[in-house]
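Weekly puzzle thread! Below is a chain. First person to post its structure in token form gets bragging rights.
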Amino acid sequence: MPWEVGYLSIRRKRILSKNLWVPTRGAFVPTLTPLDLQKRIEEKEGKVTSYRQKCSQVWLLIVANGFEPSTFGELAPEVEEFPFETSFDRIFFLQHADELIVELSTRKSHTGNAN
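Winning reply:
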């Protein structure tokens, strides 16, 4: 099979008299830009203060598990150099299906909260 095809599954049903072909999980893979990830980080910023009451370091892990079409995503090349504004100490992006983990560059937000 071509490399674009991850796998092919065949199910045979005795009750069907005709062949039935269905692409049940087809989707395109979006490119995640710095703006996309900054929005996701900002959604989590509100919890940092409460986390700091129990921890001295607060890390954020953004996961694209890649097993469902809604969780696909590839990082745009500029993401690795982009300084994300945040009050998290460190931020990681995990592309689970490809076993890729990237630590994102951060800079402290001026207000302590990026929202």
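Puzzle host: Confirmed. Bonus trivia for everyone else. Residues 31-108 form one domain.
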